[in-house]
Design a protein that fits this description.
Number of helices: 4
Strand content: 15-25%
Strand order of the largest sheet: 4-7-6-5
Distance between the termini: 40 Å
């Protein structure tokens, strides 16, 4: 039987790093949705991946289980929910700060979504993405995809440094 307060359990889950962006925790990224302790002591963690085909999903589940078991909670269930769909708006202010600190331009806020189908655009976004190193707004996209599908590769026209930009969605 788990005797620790649910807040202590949540703190353990909140400290688990994202496997693809290890400077962020799953809580920073907004992937960690809920942490509950059931009456029988079972810890139930709910996560929403950044997209349904996220290749790091199994790693996230395993890391959450391992950290919680290591902290003394032997019965852990990690649930994945896809609704509502994850959005970059769920990234915390601390997460956005950490992205920029590590040379990744954080995404802009996208705001509330309309119900129904998500429009697909095949053209690059026209938005200006400031350089996370020098702050210049004069950057350009080099590739729509970078080391992960959720990031684009850009270069600053002033300091000439390449950088990644976490795409809005």
């Amino acid at each position: 039987m788990v005797t620790a307060a649910p807040l202590a359990v949540r703190r353990v889950a909140e400290e688990v790093p994202d496997p693809e962006l290890p400077m962020l925790t799953l809580a920073d990224l907004g992937v960690l949705r809920d942490v509950l302790v059931a009456g029988d002591g079972r810890v139930v963690v709910t996560i929403t991946p950044t997209y349904s085909g996220c290749p790091a999903l199994d790693e996230m589940r395993a890391d959450l289980r391992a950290r919680l078991i290591e902290a003394g909670y032997p019965d852990v269930e990690v649930r994945t929910v896809l609704r509502p769909a994850w959005t970059t708006d769920w990234i915390s202010a601390e997460g956005r700060r950490k992205l920029a600190e590590h040379g990744i331009a954080p995404p802009d806020r996208v705001g509330p979504r309309r119900p129904g189908p998500v429009p697909l655009t095949l053209t690059p976004p026209a938005a200006r993405v400031p350089c996370p190193r020098c702050g210049s707004p004069r950057t350009r996209e080099l590739s729509r995809f970078s080391s992960t599908a959720c990031k684009a590769l850009r270069r600053c026209e002033d300091c000439r440094e390449p950088f990644e930009h976490m795409k809005e969605h």
